[in-house]
Amino acid sequence: MDPLMNSLRNFYFLRAGVAFSWAALAVLLGSAPAAVVGTLLVLYPAWDAAANVIDARRSGGLQANPGQKFNALTSIITAICMATAFALRGNAGAVLVFGVWALLAGLFQLAVGVGRRKLGGQAFMIISGAQSALAGIIFVKQSFGIAPGIAQLAPYAAFGCLYFLLSALWLTFRKSRVPSLSDRQTS
Protein backbone atom coordinates (compact mmCIF):
# COMPACT_ATOMS: atom_id res chain seq x y z
CA MET A 1 0.00 0.00 0.00
CA ASP A 2 1.20 3.49 -0.83
CA PRO A 3 2.61 5.15 2.35
CA LEU A 4 0.24 8.14 2.01
CA MET A 5 -2.81 5.87 1.73
CA ASN A 6 -1.56 3.71 4.62
CA SER A 7 -1.15 6.82 6.77
CA LEU A 8 -4.57 8.09 5.72
CA ARG A 9 -6.18 4.74 6.55
CA ASN A 10 -4.60 4.65 10.02
CA PHE A 11 -5.60 8.24 10.61
CA TYR A 12 -9.22 7.49 9.67
CA PHE A 13 -9.23 4.63 12.19
CA LEU A 14 -7.97 7.06 14.85
CA ARG A 15 -10.62 9.64 13.95
CA ALA A 16 -13.32 6.95 14.11
CA GLY A 17 -12.15 5.88 17.57
CA VAL A 18 -12.12 9.42 18.94
CA ALA A 19 -15.56 10.21 17.49
CA PHE A 20 -16.98 7.01 18.98
CA SER A 21 -15.43 7.78 22.38
CA TRP A 22 -16.82 11.32 22.37
CA ALA A 23 -20.31 10.12 21.40
CA ALA A 24 -20.25 7.49 24.16
CA LEU A 25 -19.11 10.04 26.74
CA ALA A 26 -21.75 12.52 25.58
CA VAL A 27 -24.48 9.93 26.16
CA LEU A 28 -23.04 8.67 29.45
CA LEU A 29 -22.33 12.13 30.86
CA GLY A 30 -25.30 13.99 29.37
CA SER A 31 -26.70 14.82 32.80
CA ALA A 32 -23.31 15.47 34.41
CA PRO A 33 -22.50 18.85 36.00
CA ALA A 34 -22.28 21.79 33.61
CA ALA A 35 -18.48 21.96 33.81
CA VAL A 36 -18.18 18.37 32.51
CA VAL A 37 -20.67 18.96 29.69
CA GLY A 38 -18.99 22.24 28.76
CA THR A 39 -15.58 20.55 28.69
CA LEU A 40 -16.87 17.81 26.40
CA LEU A 41 -18.37 20.40 24.07
CA VAL A 42 -15.06 22.28 23.88
CA LEU A 43 -13.01 19.11 23.39
CA TYR A 44 -14.82 18.05 20.22
CA PRO A 45 -13.81 21.04 18.03
CA ALA A 46 -10.40 21.20 19.77
CA TRP A 47 -9.73 17.59 18.71
CA ASP A 48 -10.96 18.39 15.19
CA ALA A 49 -8.45 21.24 14.98
CA ALA A 50 -5.61 18.97 16.08
CA ALA A 51 -6.74 16.22 13.73
CA ASN A 52 -6.76 18.57 10.74
CA VAL A 53 -3.25 19.78 11.54
CA ILE A 54 -1.98 16.19 11.93
CA ASP A 55 -3.61 15.11 8.67
CA ALA A 56 -2.32 18.14 6.76
CA ARG A 57 1.22 17.55 8.00
CA ARG A 58 1.06 13.98 6.70
CA SER A 59 -0.03 15.13 3.26
CA GLY A 60 2.14 18.11 2.39
CA GLY A 61 1.53 20.60 5.19
CA LEU A 62 -1.06 23.26 5.90
CA GLN A 63 -0.04 25.44 2.93
CA ALA A 64 -0.66 22.57 0.52
CA ASN A 65 -4.01 21.80 2.15
CA PRO A 66 -5.97 25.05 2.48
CA GLY A 67 -9.25 23.27 3.32
CA GLN A 68 -7.66 21.60 6.32
CA LYS A 69 -5.87 24.81 7.28
CA PHE A 70 -9.14 26.75 7.38
CA ASN A 71 -10.92 23.84 9.09
CA ALA A 72 -8.24 23.78 11.80
CA LEU A 73 -8.47 27.55 12.32
CA THR A 74 -12.26 27.39 12.39
CA SER A 75 -12.15 24.58 14.95
CA ILE A 76 -9.70 26.44 17.21
CA ILE A 77 -11.88 29.54 17.11
CA THR A 78 -14.93 27.35 17.72
CA ALA A 79 -13.42 25.75 20.82
CA ILE A 80 -12.79 29.23 22.26
CA CYS A 81 -16.25 30.47 21.27
CA MET A 82 -17.83 27.27 22.61
CA ALA A 83 -16.33 27.82 26.05
CA THR A 84 -17.47 31.43 26.05
CA ALA A 85 -20.97 30.71 24.75
CA PHE A 86 -21.50 27.86 27.21
CA ALA A 87 -20.33 30.05 30.11
CA LEU A 88 -22.54 32.98 29.09
CA ARG A 89 -25.65 31.38 27.59
CA GLY A 90 -25.49 27.77 28.70
CA ASN A 91 -26.59 24.96 26.45
CA ALA A 92 -28.41 27.14 23.89
CA GLY A 93 -25.28 29.22 23.28
CA ALA A 94 -23.14 26.12 23.00
CA VAL A 95 -25.54 24.47 20.52
CA LEU A 96 -25.57 27.63 18.39
CA VAL A 97 -21.75 27.63 18.22
CA PHE A 98 -21.70 23.85 17.65
CA GLY A 99 -24.14 24.27 14.77
CA VAL A 100 -22.20 27.04 13.05
CA TRP A 101 -19.03 24.98 13.45
CA ALA A 102 -20.67 21.80 12.12
CA LEU A 103 -21.84 23.75 9.07
CA LEU A 104 -18.40 25.25 8.35
CA ALA A 105 -16.44 22.08 9.20
CA GLY A 106 -18.78 20.08 6.98
CA LEU A 107 -18.20 22.40 4.04
CA PHE A 108 -14.42 22.22 4.54
CA GLN A 109 -14.54 18.41 4.86
CA LEU A 110 -16.61 18.25 1.69
CA ALA A 111 -13.99 20.33 -0.14
CA VAL A 112 -11.11 18.17 1.15
CA GLY A 113 -12.95 14.97 0.20
CA VAL A 114 -13.62 16.23 -3.31
CA GLY A 115 -9.97 17.25 -3.63
CA ARG A 116 -8.79 13.81 -2.52
CA ARG A 117 -11.32 11.72 -4.46
CA LYS A 118 -8.60 10.22 -6.67
CA LEU A 119 -6.97 8.66 -3.58
CA GLY A 120 -10.08 6.59 -2.97
CA GLY A 121 -12.25 6.14 0.08
CA GLN A 122 -13.42 9.73 -0.12
CA ALA A 123 -17.07 9.15 -1.00
CA PHE A 124 -17.79 8.66 2.69
CA MET A 125 -15.92 11.85 3.57
CA ILE A 126 -17.91 13.76 0.94
CA ILE A 127 -21.20 12.41 2.31
CA SER A 128 -20.05 13.14 5.87
CA GLY A 129 -19.17 16.72 4.97
CA ALA A 130 -22.55 17.31 3.36
CA GLN A 131 -24.36 15.70 6.31
CA SER A 132 -22.33 17.77 8.79
CA ALA A 133 -23.27 20.98 7.00
CA LEU A 134 -26.96 20.00 7.06
CA ALA A 135 -26.78 19.03 10.75
CA GLY A 136 -25.14 22.38 11.47
CA ILE A 137 -28.09 24.22 9.97
CA ILE A 138 -30.48 22.13 12.08
CA PHE A 139 -28.47 22.75 15.29
CA VAL A 140 -28.46 26.50 14.66
CA LYS A 141 -32.22 26.47 14.19
CA GLN A 142 -32.71 24.37 17.34
CA SER A 143 -30.54 26.72 19.41
CA PHE A 144 -33.22 29.40 19.10
CA GLY A 145 -35.89 27.08 20.51
CA ILE A 146 -35.46 24.21 22.91
CA ALA A 147 -31.79 23.46 22.37
CA PRO A 148 -30.81 19.79 22.44
CA GLY A 149 -28.56 18.54 25.22
CA ILE A 150 -25.14 17.05 24.63
CA ALA A 151 -26.60 13.53 24.50
CA GLN A 152 -28.69 14.63 21.51
CA LEU A 153 -25.51 15.85 19.78
CA ALA A 154 -23.93 12.39 20.16
CA PRO A 155 -25.44 11.03 16.91
CA TYR A 156 -23.55 13.74 15.03
CA ALA A 157 -20.26 12.32 16.34
CA ALA A 158 -21.49 8.75 15.85
CA PHE A 159 -22.10 9.39 12.16
CA GLY A 160 -18.62 10.93 11.94
CA CYS A 161 -17.28 7.73 13.50
CA LEU A 162 -19.16 5.63 10.95
CA TYR A 163 -17.90 7.60 7.97
CA PHE A 164 -14.28 7.59 9.14
CA LEU A 165 -14.52 3.86 9.85
CA LEU A 166 -16.00 3.13 6.41
CA SER A 167 -13.28 5.17 4.73
CA ALA A 168 -10.56 3.37 6.70
CA LEU A 169 -12.05 -0.02 5.86
CA TRP A 170 -12.37 0.89 2.20
CA LEU A 171 -8.70 1.88 2.09
CA THR A 172 -7.78 -1.33 3.97
CA PHE A 173 -9.56 -3.67 1.59
CA ARG A 174 -8.64 -1.65 -1.47
CA LYS A 175 -5.02 -2.42 -0.58
CA SER A 176 -5.46 -6.05 -1.51
CA ARG A 177 -7.20 -5.28 -4.80
CA VAL A 178 -5.19 -2.40 -6.26
CA PRO A 179 -1.40 -2.34 -6.61
CA SER A 180 0.30 0.63 -4.97
CA LEU A 181 1.89 3.40 -6.98
CA SER A 182 5.38 2.02 -6.28
CA ASP A 183 4.26 -1.48 -7.44
CA ARG A 184 2.93 -0.02 -10.68
CA GLN A 185 6.17 1.86 -11.36
CA THR A 186 8.34 -1.27 -10.95
CA SER A 187 6.24 -3.39 -13.32
UniProtKB/TrEMBL annotation:
Keywords of the record: Membrane, Transmembrane, Transmembrane helix
Transmembrane segments: 95-115, 121-141, 153-173
Superkingdom in the source lineage: Bacteria
Keyword presence, Transmembrane: yes
Protein name: Uncharacterized membrane protein HdeD (DUF308 family)
Organism in which the protein naturally occurs: Dyella japonica
